[in-house]
Write a structure and sequence with these properties.
Helix content is 53%, strand content 17%. By secondary structure, it is an alpha/beta fold. The chain has 2 domains: 123 residues, 3-Layer(aba) Sandwich (Rossmann fold), CATH 3.40.50; 81 residues, Tetratricopeptide repeat domain (Serine Threonine Protein Phosphatase 5, Tetratricopeptide repeat, Alpha Horseshoe). The longest helix has 18 residues.
Length: 243
Amino acid sequence: MSEQIMTALSQGPYIYVTSRTSSFAYRDKNMTAQKIAEELGVRYLLEGSVQKEDDRVRIHAQLIEGQTGNHIWAKSYDREYKDLFALQDEITMDVISSLNVKMTGFQLTSLSFSRPKNLEAYELYLKGIYYHLSRKKENIPLAYQAFNEAVKIDPNFGPTYRSLSLVYCDEVIYRTTKTPGRSLEKAEQMAKKAFEVEPDYPPYTVWSQISRLKKKFDDAIVNAKKGRYWQGILIPVSTVFSR
């Protein structure tokens, strides 16, 4: 849920969304909203909870002003699980409306990008994200397995290829591969595939990571800057959903 809402929010004009790794680091910490906002350098925090039972999902979301800790918007949603994608769009638009940000027609359409055609593939993708974000080398194979199963079910879901690319990068970072050169080749192949299926959303941050590991630091900096520009900068938002 956080992954998709963060991606959708980042498409809004003048909105800069902190990275999922930075945001998720605060998920289980007992800290005030003001302290988290200060450390992340954001003006607003989006937090919430997700509960799933049988074929229904209940979500509570709230937008908090980082400087004061005051709630400026909150809403609960109760939907059938099959309506999850539409619900994500609804939450995103509600948040943007509360920030009084107007979106262009292109950006409204772009909220539906990177959407899997199959919920099973989506759940496997989220499972892979969970293992990947744990930043534990023993979870690298588990992340790879989940992403690989997801892409077999839905081969046109770009985020899975980007995530697979980062998993191959992790093999090099955590030294779990005996052939780092081969792992980086696979990472490049997955990044290229992500770009092929979603050419409107270049995987700049992935290319930056690959370039860094190949010690092509100039390329890494260029791609990192492109990735940051792609999101736009003005209203920093951090979002974390728990379950």
